[in-house]
Amino acid sequence: MGVKVIKINPNDNVAVVVEPVARGSRIEIEGENALVARGDIPANHKVALAAIRKGARVIKYGQSIGLARERIEPGEWVHVHNLTAEEG
Question: 35, 40, 52: which is closest to 66 by C-alpha?
């Protein structure tokens, strides 16, 4: 069994891991295909559920939390290094 995540809204393109994730670990998303972590992800941090293009909105709990600074691949840690605030 893989690492569990919290995904609240069906439109979310990120989820929150509930425990630390090591690179290569299997990440389980209820009702969806599992992912493989592309790197280490700290507990309570976000993981990309799908590819997110550069400049696209990152959606968590059904709300935009910022824009992707660069392309983010499924299974990748999402944090300040690849996420920026929306202007406006």
Answer: 52
Domain 3-84 has CATH 1.10.443.10: no
Kindly list the domain boundaries of the chain, sorted by start residue.
3-84
Contact 45, 83 (CB under 8 A): no
In 3-state terms, what secondary structure has residue 85? coil
Regarding pTM above 0.85, the answer is yes
- Residue 11, sorted as left (phi over 0), alpha (psi -120 to 50) or beta, turns out to be alpha
pLDDT digits (tens, 9 = 90+) for 10-46: 999 999 999 999 999 999 888 888 999 999 999 999 9
Count of beta carbons in the 10 Å neighbourhood of residue 69: 14
Cβ-count burial 33-56 (b if 16+ within 10 Å, e if not): eebebbeebeeeebbbbeebeeee
